[in-house]
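Milestone 3.1: sequence recovery, worked example.
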């Protein structure tokens, strides 16, 4: 599968895949490589999975219902599991963690974080699309694009250093904000809940570093071969 964090996972057996669809860890627009057809297809187009999406709401739609307020108290665990690092938590754990999250509706082109501003929170993307950018010589350089299930600003959980880039919404989005202060409170009061979240963040960061290292190695090899 081509996951929302830009990493390919697999192979995955069909029964496991069906289970993930029911848990909303695999969405209708998740890309899946089907070995016996040698094709990449969106999950809702895979013959063996079509029946599970007939009544499903598209992941990019605007019909998801949230409980509004300063902090989240009513989001279903299945919705929170759209975020990869929360996928292995139990319903009870997700309900406890949700109490520390602030729900944010972000308008199109709105700035969520600004480069060089103090880092004080991480963000989990539930809906929409955001871009991570840096302004270099007055021109925008897009580092990556974030979609549902991804997160950013996680380094703020470890220090309050300056943000390394801007994050801007490409369209209306819904994100969950977890302040560093609240996460510290979680570490002190419920370390058994904080530990699997930190572990999942660490695994994702390792995958990103490995991918960046591979891109750097490929670029160096290309340059040495006289590519430019």
């Amino acid at each position: 599968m081509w996951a929302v964090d830009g990493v390919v996972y697999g192979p995955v057996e069909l029964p496991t895949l069906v289970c993930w669809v029911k848990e909303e860890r695999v969405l209708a627009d998740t890309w899946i490589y089907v070995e016996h057809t040698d094709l990449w297809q969106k999950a809702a187009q895979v013959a063996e999975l079509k029946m599970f999406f007939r009544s499903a709401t598209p992941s990019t739609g605007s019909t998801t219902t949230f409980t509004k307020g300063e902090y989240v108290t009513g989001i279903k665990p299945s919705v929170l599991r759209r975020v990869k690092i929360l996928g292995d938590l139990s319903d009870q754990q997700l309900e406890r963690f949700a109490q520390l999250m602030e729900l944010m509706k972000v308008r199109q082109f709105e700035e969520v974080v600004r480069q060089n501003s103090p880092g004080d929170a991480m963000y989990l993307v539930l809906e929409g699309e955001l871009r991570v950018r840096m302004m270099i010589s007055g021109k925008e350089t897009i580092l990556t694009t974030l979609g549902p299930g991804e997160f950013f600003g996680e380094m703020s959980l470890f220090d309050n250093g300056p943000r390394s880039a801007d994050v801007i919404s490409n369209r209306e989005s819904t994100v969950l904000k977890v302040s560093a202060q609240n996460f510290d409170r979680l570490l002190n009061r419920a370390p058994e809940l904080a530990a699997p979240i930190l572990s999942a963040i660490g695994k994702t960061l390792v995958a990103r570093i490995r991918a960046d290292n591979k891109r750097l190695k490929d670029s160096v090899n290309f340059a040495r071969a006289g590519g430019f």
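The chain has two domains: 1-59, 77-204. Confidence is low (pLDDT under 50) at residues 55-71.
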